[in-house]
Design a protein that fits this description.
single chain, 37% helix, 115 residues
Length: 115
């Protein structure tokens, strides 16, 4: 199962996301669920840099792991633009989770500081 976690601050803004695991929907190379989640996450991470000019902390590794954390020193424009992208990520992950609930789990962690 793919596990996606969105971390929200006290103002209900997304500050980080973390994705790990494999869906198990189909064989590697044919897994549309894994592909959908991967495209959403990687496009969001890359767009934070290329579109918004933000340099988030990015960690990746084995087992499909990707963690992206916004930096604390963003301009107001960057904060706004980041939230547009991250809200689109949240909607996309919700859509995939609703369509494939046995293969993707989405958790939203509210109101705390960055881990």
């Amino acid at each position: 199962m793919i596990r996606a976690v969105l971390r929200m601050d006290r103002e209900n803004h997304v500050t980080a996301f973390e994705i790990s695991g494999h869906s198990g929907y189909a064989e590697e190379g044919s897994d549309i669920v894994c592909s959908a989640v991967s495209v959403l996450a990687i496009t969001c991470a890359n767009s934070l840099e290329s579109v918004c000019g933000i340099h988030p902390a990015v960690e990746g590794g084995a087992n499909g792991h990707l963690k992206v954390t916004l930096p604390p020193n963003m301009t107001e424009t960057q904060r706004h633009d980041a939230q547009v992208l991250l809200c689109a990520l949240r909607q996309g992950l919700r859509d995939v989770t609703e369509s494939y609930p046995k293969f993707v789990q989405l958790s939203i962690v509210n109101g705390g500081k960055q881990p």
